[in-house]
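Example record

One chain of 182 residues, shown exactly as stored in the release files.
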Amino acid sequence: MLLVAAVGWFAPGCASTVLKEGAGVALGATGLYVPIKPLSELKDARPLGDYKCFELGEIKDDVGGRVPAEVMERLGEQFVKQLGAKKLPNDLAGKTLLVRGVIIHYEDRDMLAFSLGPLEEIVARIELVDKAGGRVLGVANCVGRTETRTTLGPARKAEGLAKAIVAWIAANYPKKGPEEVE
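Predicted structure tokens for this chain:
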């Protein structure tokens, strides 16, 4: 009887863990951004409409070399992949927006994270820069986070960081396709 009660008590938690881990495989890492210097004071403005090319520039490690090389290697390919997923243009002859920044926090598997659940994250202070003029248009903290055992590791944190950066760009890009922008 006690065994049945124990199984009934713990089974829902196990089921939710299985579902969460399965979702982690399907959806991958998460990315979010917090604007520090917004691109526009107007909430519904889409100030990036003139840009047709998005270039990932240098992202520096500002956490004492703790960021694995794999993060930097994977960030570029994930950036391109996420741009495609958001259907943002990639016209190399068009006006270019440069993305650059510094990694200000990197957390991998440690005991505190695992006591709260599997959690790894990378935080970068990102600038969006008009490449031709060198003017910084906006600044945000972009966070790549993995929250399941199936999404742990440097490659997935790079995926989450790329998702955050591209989500910030997409949120400030016109909703219509570039050929439909008036």
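Notes: Strands lie at 30-37, 53-61, 96-107, 120-130, 136-146.
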